[in-house]
Amino acid sequence: MKQEKLLTRPITEMEPYTKRTHHKICGFLILILFHVFNSQGQDLNSLTNKLKKSYPNEQAVFNKIALDLEIIMEKGKPVIKAKNYEEIIHLGAYSNQYTTNKIYTNSFETINDIEAFTEVPYKNRTKTFKVDEFKESFDKNSSVFYDDTKVLNFIFPGIQSGSKTILEYTRTLSEPRFAPGFYFQSYLPIVNATYTIEVDKQIDVEFDLRNTEGHDLKISKEESRNKIKYTYNVKNISKYKIENNTPDVKYFIPHINLRINSYDNDKNKTVNLLSGPEDLHKWYRGFIEGLKTNYSAEIDKLTNSIIKDIDDEKEQAKAIFYWVQQNIKYIAFEDGMRGFIPHNGAYVCSKRYGDCKDMASLVVNMLHHAGIEAYFTWVGTRDIPYNYSDFATPSVDNHMIATYIHDNNYYYLDATAQFSPFEIPSSMIQGKEVLISLGDNYEIKKVPEIDKQVSLITDSIRFSLKNGVLEGSGKVSLSGFARVFNNYKLDVTSEQDKEDYLKRFLSKGSNKFQLEDYNIKQLKDLDLPLLIDYSFSVQNYYQEVGDEIYLNLNLEKPFNNDQIDEDRTQSIENEYKFIQRNVNRFTIPEDYKVTYLPQDHAFEGDLFGFSINYTQKDDEVILSSEYYLDYLLMQPDQFENWNNAINKLSEAFSEIIILKK
Predict the structure, then answer these.
(1) What secondary structure, in 3-state letters, does 117-137 show?
(2) Is 285 helix (H, G, I), strand (E, B) or coil?
(3) Neighbours of 542 (CB within 10 A)
(4) E strand or H helix that includes residue 518
């Protein structure tokens, strides 16, 4: 259309309109349009061939991704209009895996002006196939009972090698605190990624760049009389690599976050929106107003029944927390502002279910009924790499808990973590900042990373050789997070599922391991270690040659062959730090004596260490081993040290004892 207007305007100005003129113009336009189609087809083919050379192993690439924001004042408040553009060039024969696409939306925004179509080369020109059907559905997330996020599902038609798909649409955001950022990297290579923000000068914005080191990011700023335009552009970005046990992509892909600090309203008065944590807390505080002190006769009666025989305040708080853990079912529910506003404690108690906000609300309210002070607390799980103290926005957090302070010790009470003991926080918030609401004021604290000594796994076994079979019995003790994670696995209704899990967890020696019997103790008492007594057998494990027996006492080989690939580029995430101790007592068969006992082995590093010690006492050979993991996130520059340690461990595991008649 732009070309037609440019062409017809000078003609109509040069010559008055007649039938003859009409025919001349139409004929001229047909020639021009044919040339345009021909040029477009040639341009698309040329572009495809160029990209195939640059990306010979890719089925498709993003030729362009753009997000253009316009932040303007409407009715005295900032409004954000976001125009999204995506252009994919399909290079390979299997690029049809990218035919299906989605647009996500929720109650805080509206979407309009959707254009989605495919351009296909056809006889030196292009054919255009528009998407004519968008199916709306709710986003079905297995971890969320109800989510107001809607999805527009559609399929690009006619995709083949050499085709181009284009998607563009506009979003209008009603809540300026949700100003969208931008990712400069994706699951496909990107030729050109651009993020622009045009903002009224009466609106103060701030940017937070992440992981852009090593990328040629171009930044520009243009000012006019009433507006400022910021542009961020990166070219030729490789696709991000999917690797096992990586943290969320926000930890490593280049991206930018945006927030609106403040704006001048119609009365020329500056209104703070998100200029710092104090503004975020002020907004959040409105969501919890009155929930702590809301009186309920039902909760009062229930609380009193829970603590009636307990005098110590901390023990009372613990009893209330455990009651909520065990009696309120966690069900995530997100619907507009309900994603931020908890229900009151009485409602949650009567329904016996709720999301993280609801469970925190009930804990705080029940503690208040008991005369115990507790505080609503916001926190981001370890999926989120942001802090309140750095760049406070709603994107910093995705979770709510309660905080109880006793003798200057902070207890972070996450009732959604069903088996977490009172003394330690849930593993998913270790090392993260929390925003604690203290009424008009707030406090930012950092959840500690729980020391490896807290999460202890001990496994002590006695075994002997009988008729060619290794037979033994053992005792396992699990504390801290080791207990929590195994509690989830063992708290199942099916005995068969429980037994299958224990076979894997307790497995020793080889795939001939048989779990003969087991007994689980203290499964429900979260303040005590989880205990498992068991008996087992392993066939065909040792070698007997003549009058000699060759036996590897390392029946458990944790971390064996856990070397990190040399081409790995992303950091590795670990759920929790822990220590594992094994004591294997082997009864020497009658008429045999030990002729070879291996040397001890040990390694001590910042992230990982082990020790393996052999001793002989009377008729037993005792193997005592200990292993520890002391990290939550291992960076690529630490991979070499890790691999060196694992190589040493693998050598130690190869040692055997020799027995002779």
Answers:
(1) EEEEEECCEEEEEECCCCEEE
(2) helix
(3) 18
(4) strand 513-521
- What secondary structure letter does DSSP report for 631? -
- Rounded Cα distance between 94 and 621, Å, is 60
Contact 45, 121 (CB under 8 A): yes
Give bridge partners of residue 109 from the DSSP assignment.
173
> Could you tell me the CA-to-CA distances from 318 to 306, 307, 313, 375 in Å, in that order?
10, 10, 9, 15
Among 490, 457, 491, 495, which residue's Cα sits nearest to residue 475? Answer: 457
- Residue 146 structure tokens: 């109800």
In the chain, the amino acid numbered 616 is: Q
What is the Cα–Cα distance from 197 to 260, expressed in whole angstroms?
12
Beta carbons within 8 Å of 439's beta carbon, 6+ residues apart: none
Indicate if the alpha-carbon torsion angle 293, 295, 296, 299 is positive or negative.
Answer: positive
> Both tokens of residue 328?
């309120």
d(CA 159, CA 97): 10
Query: Which residue's structure tokens are 């559905």?
Result: 137
Q: How close are the terminal C-alpha atoms of the chain, in Å? A: 97
For residue 328, pLDDT over 80 is answered with yes
Residue 419 CB partners (closer than 8 Å, separation 6+): 325, 483, 484, 487, 488, 491, 526
| pTM for this prediction | 0.89
Amino acid symbol at 574: N
Model confidence pLDDT, tens digit, residues 514-560? 999 999 999 999 999 999 999 999 999 999 999 999 999 999 999 99
pLDDT digits (tens, 9 = 90+) for 567-593: 999 999 999 999 999 999 999 999 999
SS3 category, 196: strand
Q: What are phi and psi of 192, to 5 degrees?
A: -145, 120
99 confidence band (pLDDT: 50, 70, 90): very high
Given a contact cutoff of 8 angstroms between Cβ atoms, the answer to whether 148 and 159 are in contact is no
- Place 367 in a pLDDT band, splitting at 50, 70 and 90: very high
Q: Regarding beta strands 530-539 and 513-521, do their DSSP bridges make them parallel or antiparallel, or are they unpaired?
A: antiparallel
User: What Rg value do the Cα atoms of the chain yield, rounded?
Assistant: 32
For residue 427, give the nearest of 631, 576, 629 by alpha carbon: 576
Query: Which residue type, as a one-letter code, is found at position 661?
Result: K
In 312-432, the DSSP E strands lie at 329-330, 333-334, 353-354, 375-379, 399-406, 409-413
**In contact, 262 and 252? CB cutoff 8 Å:** no
**Whole-angstrom distance, CA of residue 25 vs CA of residue 36:** 16
